[in-house]
Amino acid sequence: MSDSIDVDRWRDELESKRAEKDEFFADHPQSPIPPEERDEFDGLDYFEPDPAYRVSATATVHDDPEVVLMDTTAGREMRYLRVATLEFELDRDDEELEDGTFELAAYQQESPNEQPLFVPFRDKTTGQQSYQGGRYMELEPAEELEDGTEIVVDFNLAYSPFCAYSDTFDCPLPPEENWLEVTIPAGERDE
Q1: Most exposed among 17, 152, 176, 181, judged by the fewest C-beta atoms under 10 Å?
Q2: What is the pLDDT of residue 2?
Q3: What is the pTM of this model?
Q4: 3-class secondary-structure state, position 154
């Protein structure tokens, strides 16, 4: 983890966000859990919080964002703009896991409204320990992105799209440029 944080406080905040999400999934009318399955729902499964997967990424901003058509789980295409590329390093203590420098593209929909950066990705847990359609992160930079801006990418906040819980949703699939050839055991996982 490249920036210094209070790990205990970070872990408490992460656990609190996870508890809030479990409550939403269990009780809220807009929960993706089908109503007939909510009584049995006892919370989402997560990898253990690991600060090694909270990294600082350097942004390269695309002034003239390219349109990217993402396939969806329902066989359609959704238009996004590739607005930035985020480069980060992973340094793990576990010798079996690869270290290295990686890149993820960050997208936004074509919309005049401010919106978080959408970062869909696949990694070596996809389809085994995590949802087969990949996982998502939404990043909200503290300042306007410019080349060289440092932004925190916390894979512990990676989540499965609603499609993982119900076929009634249509979700974009991570494009091939966001397929990481590394294991990211952080965030939501499959049961």
Answers
A1: 176
A2: 44
A3: 0.91
A4: strand
